[in-house]
Amino acid sequence: MTLDEAWRILSEHQFKRTKNRETLLEYFAAHDKYMSAMEVRNFMAQDNPGISYDTIYRNLATFSELKILEETELNGERHFRMQCDAKNHHHHFICTECGKTRSISHCPMEIVTDELSGYEVEGHKFEIYGKCPICIT
Amino acid sequence: MTLDEAWRILSEHQFKRTKNRETLLEYFAAHDKYMSAMEVRNFMAQDNPGISYDTIYRNLATFSELKILEETELNGERHFRMQCDAKNHHHHFICTECGKTRSISHCPMEIVTDELSGYEVEGHKFEIYGKCPICIT
DNA sequence: CAAATGAATAGTAACCGTTACGATTTGTTG
DNA sequence: CAACAAATCGTAACGGTTACTATTCATTTG
Questions:
Q1: B27-50 pLDDT tens trace
Q2: Same domain, A48 and A22
Q3: B102 → chain A, closest CA residue
Q4: DSSP line for A63-117
Q5: Do B112 and A106 touch (CB under 8 A)?
């Protein structure tokens, strides 16, 4: 997702254009990987040492709800990354070393749903963990 | 997994037979679903009000390492259930209402691995969330 | 363009699941 | 049954997250 798309979504929902949101979105646009809330906070604190936890977590939650960011839980911490491509449902290989991801086009749900008649499926999680080619060496 | 199997594994690894471990294992044997550490603790506190967090978490971790319990993270909390069947790799549908599970035989990794040449795959998570037939009604 | 107003943020403390640790008790082994 | 290591207790600390009030800021409107 581009910065322009993100701002379009935000303004469509009457969210204001603030310095914090600009810095946040630029940070995500420039880092193509999953990052923890704390990583984000540490970065934000560089030019704004007094930034509040409230600001970080509230904006991350907002962006996530608006599908500007993708969210997942790794080792008990929430991690976020810029939405890859809103149009296509997909899954991720996630590098446990650097956090970078690789999209997986195949979705296992197609095969599984008929195994679950009588059940109401609300969601699913399919993630692959390991080392990316760069981190192996 | 039966209680006998669990105790065999424990004694093979020189773990002692304590009252707490007996109560814990009986609880898991009697509840065929994922339960949080707190749920377990609350149950244990019924006949042993002074039971320590240390005891709960240490034993859950031990059981999990020995593959007596299966572990997953739901909504930021660790959940545990008795190991379904140690022999076969499988995945779960998990009811978000009652925690009960249904095994899914199909594993998506078979199809996906050749999409990931150059990557070192260490693990994966595939879980389906929703309502089971009983909780729908 | 200035005042009004509601959103956004700062500063800080509380919360909750989990982990840690010294002191004590318990299970097992010889 | 003595001795020793394992297990537990009681309690405090920890880390990520959430919550709250006062203040600041972005936008709207006269």
A1: 999 999 999 999 999 999 999 999
A2: yes
A3: A116
A4: HHHTTSEEEEEETTEEEEEE-S-TTS--EEEEETTT-BEEEE---THHHHGGGGT
A5: yes
